[in-house]
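Fill in residues.
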């Protein structure tokens, strides 16, 4: 997880900020115009002391009321022009900067969708959220204020100092006296502030993670009465963040103190020296007024440097944090093989970019050539299971369990020889973040699921079943070996083609904040409609959807929390089968269902499975019996393959696993 301990790369703030250029480029014309307008506005302010000098030495000294009125009018116009120009600057930058922030956020989101699952395993979601929201807000603020005003104030200070030196160079030198100590303080401050700003922003990420976990896990927290410990964890982290923010405030106070005090002392000294010079007759009163007015006009540009530097530093850290994610390598798209060129591959939605697709974990699926065999398989589905047909199903199931599985396998219409099914060739896998000396989760897996065959994958908890299924849609890359679909390596297929061929349903079903129907149709191409939706809902026995307030248009809440676990599982299953996938990977998809619903789903699934090559992770004999054969995963290897009955007879571990389940081992 990326947490507060994330190492900050040793990069200067300027170099970090320069990385924003590609995003700022389109807005450069407006930004430069805005900076120019601000410099003109600021310089207009510097003309005011010169008008004052003319007023004091001219009309005021000559007691000329008309001249005084003219001077006052001049001053008013200058003030008005200055305000107008600053307003224009704001108008110039507001829209393009909002666009910069939006496009950076869109890029981040797109990138996150394309990053491999192993990245998401490593990174806390709160860290990603804080980078996408708080950090990008800081970047926008930097582009709106410090970027322009560091330049504008710098130019204003230079022009002001030149004006003061031209008025009276000795007084000018007095004013310039604190410049060196102020600059040294700024350099020291920048370094220290960078460290603290980074720490604070990382801590915001950690805090976001805790809040997010608390909201998502509210049932567990309440169920186990963990609200106190959770509140303590939150308090500790927010206490840490508060400490860091206070340290930032102390640093800011120090630099602010130096930046304000030294120039003020210099102005005081210049006032004393100036008054003495006026008394000696070496300087006109108007020049002294103009000089002091210029010095006072420069107070804000000088004083603001402290917080402008602080904001810039925070923006540099935010940019660093943003690019830490953006620099992570995305999944390569796979071979360029077009979906259409693949055996049986659907050309689903191939024009749209992969990131616009449903996330693969949602169970994407395929548009298969709608051949007559496939259609008839789906037409055989019985969408309405009343209680009578349910008991019939169950009676048929119990009769068919075990003994007639091979017969059922034989009755499956064998697909053409060109299809070679799903094959693991000597596959070894170790999680990317696993310690180097730990044994691989999977070792030398050789497994063949024949075309049209359903194979159950059975193994003890933690034996690697989920891991093995995740390798097929390339959620993780195999460490060595090869996986082929109909003879074509999964790495040789483009990701689009792969995801068009394989549909996945996981044990923990994720639903998105959308209508129920949309959640299911995510698994199909854009052309799937009500008929496909109804068929998939029937297969998954998800008819409860029609009883929801708005039927398939009912919105399900965040992660589908308003539905029961079994209902969510059935929707995830419907999503997996809605696109009539060629290869179906089901990770214990019926675990949350009651026996009646499970039996009904199994009966309906059989029709789908008869025509699909499927790998089904199973813990219960009832799920195993959906399959033609069973593979036993043990110690990271395939220990045995056979029918349920064969393995029950010949493999003690398998017999133990199956009997243990009935005792509710899971
Ligand atoms: N993202 C990950 N990073 C590192 N190790 C992991 C990761 N996910 C799982 N593991 C480890 O891999 C092993 C296999 O896990 P996996 O989830 O595949 O088992 P499983 O057989 O599906 O278990 P279950 O039946 O409980 O679902 C476990 O030891 C687990 O700790």
């Amino acid at each position: 997880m990326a947490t507060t301990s994330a190492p900050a790369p040793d990069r200067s703030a300027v170099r970090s900020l320069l990385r924003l250029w590609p995003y700022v480029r389109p807005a450069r014309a407006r930004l430069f115009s805005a900076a120019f307008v601000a410099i003109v506005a600021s310089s207009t302010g510097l003309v005011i002391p010169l008008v004052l000098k003319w007023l004091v030495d001219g009309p005021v000294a000559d007691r000329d009321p008309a001249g005084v009125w003219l001077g006052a009018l001049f001053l008013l116009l200058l003030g008005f022009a200055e305000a107008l120009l600053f307003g224009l600057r704001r108008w110039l930058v507001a829209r393009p900067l909002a666009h910069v922030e939006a496009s950076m956020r869109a890029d981040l989101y797109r990138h996150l969708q394309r990053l491999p699952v192993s990245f998401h395993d490593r990174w806390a979601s709160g860290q990603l959220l804080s980078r996408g929201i708080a950090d990008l807000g800081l970047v926008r603020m930097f582009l709106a204020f410090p970027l322009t005003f560091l330049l504008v104030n710098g130019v204003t200070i230079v022009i002001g100092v030149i004006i003061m030196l031209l008025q009276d160079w000795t007084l000018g030198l007095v004013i310039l006296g604190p410049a060196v100590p102020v600059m040294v303080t700024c350099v020291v401050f920048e370094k220290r502030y960078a460290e603290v700003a980074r720490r604070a922003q990382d801590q915001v990420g950690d805090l976001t993670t805790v809040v997010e976990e608390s909201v998502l896990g509210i049932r567990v927290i309440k169920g186990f009465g963990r609200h106190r410990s959770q509140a303590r964890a939150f308090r500790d982290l927010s206490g840490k963040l508060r400490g860091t923010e206070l340290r930032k405030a102390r640093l800011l106070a120090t630099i602010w103190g130096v930046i304000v005090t030294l120039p003020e002392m210099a102005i005081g000294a210049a006032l004393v020296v100036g008054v003495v010079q006026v008394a000696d007759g070496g300087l006109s009163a108007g020049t002294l007024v103009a000089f002091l007015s210029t010095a006072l006009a420069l107070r804000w540009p000088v004083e603001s440097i402290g917080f402008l530097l602080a904001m810039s530093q925070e923006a540099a850290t935010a940019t660093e944090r943003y690019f830490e994610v953006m620099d992570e390598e995305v999944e390569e798209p796979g071979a360029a093989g077009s979906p259409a060129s693949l055996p049986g591959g659907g050309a689903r939605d191939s024009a749209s970019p992969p990131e616009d697709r449903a996330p693969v974990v949602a169970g994407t699926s395929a548009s298969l050539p709608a051949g007559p065999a496939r259609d008839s398989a789906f037409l055989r589905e019985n969408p309405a299971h009343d209680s009578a047909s349910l008991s019939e199903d169950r009676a048929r199931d119990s009769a068919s369990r075990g003994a007639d599985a091979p017969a059922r396998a034989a009755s499956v219409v064998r697909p053409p020889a060109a299809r070679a099914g799903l094959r693991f060739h000597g596959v070894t896998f170790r999680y990317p973040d696993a310690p180097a000396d730990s044994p691989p989760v999977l070792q030398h897996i050789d497994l063949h699921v024949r075309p049209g065959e359903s194979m159950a994958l059975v193994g003890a908890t933690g034996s690697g079943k989920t891991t093995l299924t995740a390798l097929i849609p390339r959620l993780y890359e195999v460490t060595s070996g090869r996986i082929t679909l109909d003879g074509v390596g999964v790495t040789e297929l483009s990701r689009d083609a792969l995801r068009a061929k394989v549909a996945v349903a996981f044990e923990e079903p994720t639903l998105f904040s959308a209508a129920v129907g949309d959640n299911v149709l995510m698994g199909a191409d854009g052309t799937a409609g009500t008929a496909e939706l109804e068929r998939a809902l029937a297969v998954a026995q998800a008819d409860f959807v029609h009883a929801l307030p708005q039927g398939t248009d009912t919105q399900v809440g965040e992660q589908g929390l308003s539905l029961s676990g079994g209902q969510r599982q059935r929707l995830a299953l419907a999503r997996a089968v809605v696109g009539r996938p060629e290869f179906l990977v089901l990770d214990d998809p019926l675990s949350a269902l009651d026996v009646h619903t499970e039996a009904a789903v199994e009966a309906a699934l059989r029709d789908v499975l008869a025509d699909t090559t499927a790998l089904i992770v199973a813990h219960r004999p009832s799920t195993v019996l959906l399959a033609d054969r069973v593979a036993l995963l043990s110690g990271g290897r395939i220990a045995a393959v056979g029918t349920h009955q064969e393995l029950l007879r010949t493999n003690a571990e398998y017999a133990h696993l199956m009997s243990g389940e009935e005792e509710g081992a899971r």
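The chain has 25 helices and ten strands.
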